[in-house]
Amino acid sequence: MTTETDTDPSGTDPSGTESPGTAPGTEPRTEPAHAPEIPQRLNLAEHAPEVYKAMIRLDTAAKQDLDPRLHELVKIRASQLNHCAFCLDMHTKDALAAGESVERIIQLGAWEESRHFYTEKELAAIELTEAVTVLTDGFVPDEVYERAAAHFEERELAQLIAAITVINAWNRFGVTTRMTPGHYRPAGAR
Q1: Nearest to 82 by CA among 167, 158, 145
Q2: Which of 33, 94, 129, 155 is deepest in the core (most CB within 10 A)?
Q3: Which residues contact 27 (CB under 8 A, 6 or more apart)?
């Protein structure tokens, strides 16, 4: 990665055209250097391949019959709560690829103040995600569970609970091993 633009001092790039944002006869702008990537501590897939493969199978099984966009919202919200940068990178990109809007992804971190961006069913899933992810009181409150049960048939609710549990496990792997965000590309992306 370079921190300077590829222009000569005249503001002209090697092809002879002016660089965007550089006035003729002025020095090119330089971007501040980004902090270095934090190195990954451990490659789980390499050192525990059977566990990793089992997690992939569990993840695949957990998302069956769930709306892909809802599933990504759940993964993003749990990853926000668990501070898993790798999973946030992956699932925001997957959500966008599944047709989710940037606005709804951005507002997810403040969903209680931005309820009007989501359906009642999505809100119930997000609230359940928080309750399962942050077991601060040691249980999922009855009212949270009942709200989710009112919007999801039992099979779908079971799948939702499984999906929430799986993303929390992935988050713990990601945070503990410091999986590096920024390099993931959704299937079919260039």
Answers
A1: 167
A2: 129
A3: 9
Q: What are the structure tokens assigned to 159, written together?
A: 């799948």
Q: How far apart are CA 174 and CA 38, in angstroms?
A: 13
21 pLDDT above the threshold of 90? no
What is d(CA 105, CA 96) in angstroms, rounded to the nearest whole number? 9
- Provide CB contacts within 8 A for 158, sequence distance 6+: none
Residues 6+ apart with CB under 8 A from 58: 162, 166, 169
The answer to whether the CB of 5 falls within 8 A of the CB of 30 is yes
Please identify which residue in the block is written with the tokens 């099979």.
155
Q: What is the pLDDT of residues 108-148, one digit of tens each?
A: 999 999 999 999 999 999 999 999 999 877 799 999 999 99
Longest dimension (CA), the chain: 68
Joined tokens for residue 142: 């009855």
168 closest CA partner among 122, 132, 140, 124: 132
Question: pLDDT, tens digit, for every residue of 66-83?
Answer: 999 999 999 999 999 999
CB atoms near residue 19 (< 10 Å): 17
Write down the pTM of the prediction.
0.82
